[in-house]
Amino acid sequence: MARPLGFDPEEAKTALMNIFWARGYEATSMQDIEVATGLRKQSLYRLFGDKHSMYLAALRTYEDCVVAEAERILGQTPGSARARFAALLDWVIRSASDAGDVRGCFLANASAEASAADPETAEVLAIMSGRMASAFDGALSADARYRDDAGLRRARMRHLLAAYVGLRILVKGAFDEAAMREAADDLLLSI
Description:
The protein is mainly alpha-helical. It contains ten helices and no strands. Helix content is 76%, strand content 0%. Helix 4 runs parallel beside helix 7 (119-140) and helix 5 packs parallel to helix 9.
C-alpha cells in the first residue's frame, strides 16, 4: 500500500505558480522551488517530474485560478459590456493595490520568455489565450451592437485583450493606482 503524501499537492501547485509567475522559468532555480513549496527535490520530482513539468503545472494552475476568475467576472457581472469590463479592470487594479500583487500577467510573462518556444508551453499558452479571447468575446455580446456585428466584436475583443494584458504588465512595472484607474477609464470609453 502506498504511503500517503505528507503535503497537499494543490498547495504545492499554487506555490509553483507563485514562484514561476514572480521569477519566470529561467530565473527560478530548484532551490527557489524547494523554498517556495517547502518540499525537497525528491518529493517534487516524484509528484511533478522535472522542472519543465513543474512549470507546466504552474501555468495550468494559473489558468485554473486567474483565467477562470477573469471568465467568471466577465460572464457573471450583470449589465452591459462596459460594466463587465469595468469589473474585470477593477479586479486587476484592486489585486495590485489591496494585495500588493505586482507580478503582472503570467500568461504575458511566459509568452515573452524563451520557454514559450517550447511546444508544450506554447500549447498551454494558446489554450489560455483562447479562453481569454472567448471570455472577452462573450462579454462584448452583452451589447447588441457587438452581438449583431461579428467583425466589430472581433476587432474590439482584440483591442481590449491587448489593453488588458498591457494594463497587467504596467502593474508589474511601476504600479501607480491613480494612473492605472485613469488608463482603465480611458479604455472603458472605447466600449
